[in-house]
Write a structure and sequence with these properties.
Belongs to the Mediator complex subunit 6 family. Component of the Mediator complex. It is found in: Nucleus. InterPro entries: Mediator_Med6, Mediator_Med6_sf. By secondary structure, this protein is α+β, with helices and mostly antiparallel strands. The protein folds into two domains: 85 residues, Nuclear Transport Factor 2, Chain: A, CATH 3.10.450; 57 residues, no CATH class. The chain is built from three helices and seven strands, in the order H-H-E-E-E-E-H-E-E-E. The chain has a four-stranded antiparallel beta sheet with strand order 1-2-3-4. A hairpin with a 3-residue loop joins strand 5 and strand 6. The protein starts with 6 loop residues before the first helix and ends in a 13-residue tail after the last strand.
Length: 153
């Protein structure tokens, strides 16, 4: 199963892995280094793109963050990925989430205005009137300007 020790090696097999990342550079530099007194390099001392496990609930759930290391104490997030039961997913960015929510809201508003438009009639002599289910007579709307924007949609 996946653990904190092997999750980045597992993530390295996904299409989201950057072979130019600091993680890969360190992996290649220490791959054949069998010296007992060798201290592994600290990834926080390097600058560039790195992958880091932000949150974990082994063995089923991990969040991996791709970030740009600027200094030893500063790293900016670039993307987030999550691993659920061994499947790697890319998390959507904030722009995509907000865009999707706005699009969904506008879609539903458009449907509301279309439904309202089906229940309103306009005649130059009487202005806007609501359609009545009982008979052909219509109730006159009080202020025709307030309903004008319905005709736009």
């Amino acid at each position: 199963g996946l653990t904190l020790e092997n999750v980045l090696d597992y993530f390295a097999e996904s299409p989201f892995w950057d072979s130019q990342s600091n993680n890969e550079v360190l992996k290649m530099q220490t791959k054949f280094n069998f010296l007992p007194d060798h201290k592994p390099l600290d990834i926080t001392k390097m600058t560039g793109v790195e992958f880091y496990v932000v949150q974990a609930d082994p063995p089923f759930f991990f969040i991996v963050q791709k970030r740009k290391r600027i200094s030893e104490y500063e790293a900016r997030p670039l993307a987030s990925y999550y691993i659920i039961r061994g499947i790697v997913y890319q998390a959507p960015d904030l722009y995509t989430i907000i865009g999707s929510r706005i699009y969904t809201s506008l879609y539903h508003l458009h449907n509301v205005f279309n439904n309202i438009r089906e229940h309103v009639n306009f005649h130059p002599a009487t202005g806007y009137t609501w359609k009545s289910d009982k008979d052909d007579s219509h109730a006159i709307l009080g202020n025709s300007r307030s309903i004008f924007f319905f005709t736009i949609f």
